[in-house]
Design brief:
Keywords: Aminotransferase, Cytoplasm, Glutamine amidotransferase, Repeat, Transferase. With 360 residues, the protein is α/β, with parallel strands linked by helices. The protein is 44% helix and 17% strand. It is built from 13 helices and twelve strands. The two termini are 30 Å apart. It binds 6-O-phosphono-alpha-D-glucopyranose.
Length: 360
């Protein structure tokens, strides 16, 4: 087993560090002359759909939340993202004009498979986004696209998540392209630079190790963000609770005033993500509200966002806003990872969790 860790202390850390490579693998051959190539979907006429569903569990659901926002903006189709255990029992509005996308690293999650069967029964066209070749989901869906993350051993998902994001962004713009919508060429161009940026962020690991020291003795941590950043903080909070057992919740920053702000007191730690320029100023004003109540803040943002008196600010590289969802995942993973290490937790095998939940 030690050999397979390639010199890393844990599988989780090894998998975090594999991200530049596996993101590049997932992108390989997908962008040719500024066009997105997903040959697996060649025979789908996307004009037949009037709505899109994303269905998944856990981390794959958070990737779906991000993918759903990107797809909706790119195609102007209505998109709904939902967790599989809800979808399967809530009589979803699915018919022949529905495109249903199922995201699953393992391709074996019981709820996601049941949801897929239901969508097919209702007449939807189904696409699986899977990591494991030949998995049940990849056989059962009408179409399949693979993330090229390679085997993910650690229970907490890292490289599967970022490669799902990459593939879902490609898929969103592929559908937009097929529908004749305007394409964000800057985004397409920058996709190939993401592995290098991830590499650079990984070199800053000691910064995130220091942030983790702020969380070591806490029972609770608060994550806030808006828009795409909300999907990112949901995943950041999930990662932290999974591996370090610090109770972490993620809130839409605009909802703080409707309840969560009551929890903030001297010494509370707020991890804020503000990478989306159209809404960053609003999140920053929410951060200030938490600081006024004694919160210590870790802010992950982009250059150009002026924030005064924040204890810790990390500036992400300068890429188009949609791609920040991929980059910001890295600091959030490392904060969770180092918090778990400092606390002496079994990072690769957190208590009560399974890598793949194949029973309901
Ligand atoms: C389990 C794992 C999570 C994963 C979820 C969905 O809960 O611990 O890391 O995100 O299942 O798994 P899937 O294989 O369907 O992506």
């Amino acid at each position: 087993e030690a050999a397979k860790k390639d010199g890393y202390d844990t599988f989780m850390l090894k998998e975090i560090y594999e991200q530049p490579h596996v993101i590049a693998e997932t992108l390989r051959g997908r962008i040719v002359n500024q066009k997105i190539v997903l040959d697996e979907l060649n025979d789908i006429d996307f004009h037949q759909f009037n709505k899109v569903y994303f269905v998944a569990c856990g981390t794959a659901y958070h990737a779906s939340l991000c993918g759903s926002q990107v797809l909706e903006r790119a195609t102007k189709l209505p998109v709904i993202a939902t967790v599989a255990s809800e979808f399967r029992y809530n009589d979803p509005l699915v018919d022949e004009q529905t495109l249903a996308i199922f995201v699953s690293q393992s391709g074996e999650t019981a709820d996601t498979l049941a949801a897929l069967r239901l969508a097919k029964e209702k007449g939807a066209t189904t696409i699986a986004i899977a990591n494991v070749l030949g998995s049940t989901i990849s056989r059962d869906a009408n179409y399949v696209l693979y993330t090229c993350a390679g085997p993910e051993i650690a229970v907490a998902s890292t490289k599967a998540y970022t490669t799902q994001l990459v593939l879902l962004i490609l898929l969103a713009y592929y559908i937009a392209q097929e529908l004749g919508k305007e394409i964000d060429h800057e985004l397409i161009q920058q996709l190939n630079t993401i592995p290098q940026y991830v590499e650079n962020i990984l070199k800053d690991h000691s910064i995130f190790e220091n942030y983790a020291k702020m969380l070591e003795n806490l029972h609770d941590a608060y994550f806030i963000g808006r828009s795409l950043d909300y999907a990112s903080v949901l995943e950041g909070a999930l990662k932290l609770k999974e591996v370090s057992y610090v109770h972490a919740d993620a809130y839409v920053a605009g909802e703080l005033k409707h309840g969560p702000i009551a929890l903030i007191e001297d010494g509370s730690v707020v991890i804020a993500v503000a990478t989306q320029p159209h809404i960053a100023a609003k999140t920053i004003s929410n951060i200030q509200e938490t600081m006024a109540r004694g919160a210590r803040v870790i802010l992950l943002t982009t250059h150009g966002e002026e924030v005064k008196n924040v204890e810790n600010t990390y500036y992400l590289p300068d890429v188009v806003p949609t791609l920040q969802a991929i980059l910001v995942a890295i600091p959030l993973q490392l904060i969770a990872y180092y918090t778990a290490c400092i606390k002496g937790c079994d990072v690769d095998k957190p208590r009560n969790l399974a890598k793949s939940v194949t029973v309901e």
